[in-house]
Amino acid sequence: MRYICCALMVIFSTEIIAQKNEPNYDESKIPAYTLPELLTAKDGKTISSSKQWDKTRRNEILMDFQRFVYGKIPEGAVETRTQIIKETDALNGKATLKEVRMTFSRNNHQISMDILLFLPKSKEKAPLFVGLNFYGNHTILDDPNISLASSWIRNNEAFGIIDNKATEASRGVRHSRWPVEKIIDRGYGLATIYYGDIDPDVNDFSDGIHTLFYGSGQMHPAKDQWGSISGWAWGLSRAMDYFETDKAIDNKRIALMGHSRIGKTALWAGAMDERFAIVISNDSGCGGAALSRRKIGETVGKINSSFPHWFCDNFNDYSNNENALPIDQHMLIALMAPRPVYVASAEGDRWADPRGEFLSAYHAGEVYRLFGLDGLPSDKMPEVNQPIMHSVGYHIRTGKHDVTDFDWESYMDFADMHF
Ligand code: GCU
Question: Which of 261, 309, 357 to mutate to test the pocket of ligand 1 (most atoms within 8 A of CB)?
Fold first, then answer.
């Protein structure tokens, strides 16, 4: 009898564990939640003008994200050297291909990041899309003029990445996500940087940008200091420093786009650095556009255990404790106001919670209205493949977690509308 009881208990508890680890995809199992108020300041006062928003509330929210979610970027000057390492024709003479190397030094540490640029010859000063990439600049287009990334890259045999190094076989393997020619044909430039140049995407803080800012004896960021997402965002701002100096770029018209973890990064970079004129989140999910309190698909607990280096250590306090967060992700979207912001989801990307991404974009509209601008018109999700574009834009397309031509065409339409 005792053995049967024990056996039953084992079966029962493994079932509970299994259920616990299984992501929830059922809307009816979302716990009741109340979103923190965008327009109530910490002192309880109602924010009723764009002026009050800019003066107090925006900064309160920004500081909360910094302290509890992504982590503070340490202050301090970095020695920066910028070199144009290549300038040549591309795409049958339609565009100029440029490679710019930025080398950052401090504290006896040094890192370099390479910006790959395509600029349309049709424009004297081109508006620009900028985004980080996952596997190296040379993966976005098969063009032998693009230098192979030299830093550590996650192994991927199908992509020709062997022993964490790019090979000739890696050229153009991610072209489907970067329709370079279409972007050029529509009169936009494109800039991209391999995110691993800034910080390799591994749970290891002995490399990458963080090492330049450690105090003496420090080996790891403090609890409220930057994780990798803040590090990647820092790199995007340094690229913006360069764009401001390049006469071929219209630096008032720079749209920042990112997919997935890099979509989370685009939102955070766009929140911190208001020089990005449009911010676009593609399938950014948990810790990006999706509301954390919905706890559907990927959750804060899950992301903190799978990717402990992305956020600051303080974020661990909110694993399975989302209601204690003073913010939710709609407030991150609202930090873009009054700049246009676009959130995109994919129907098959349940892990990223498309409805939570949509609701964030919808709720951010409250702040856009303070500026006399239109957010999303209703809390009802649009049909698939039917983009809505106001100052806040949104679409859910058919298909999986990915970046497709449909996504890019929508982003270019959105940029045409606002630039
Ligand atoms: C994982 C992770 C997501 C992330 C995605 C990506 O799926 O759980 O949060 O967005 O990777 O970056 O591709």
Answer: 261
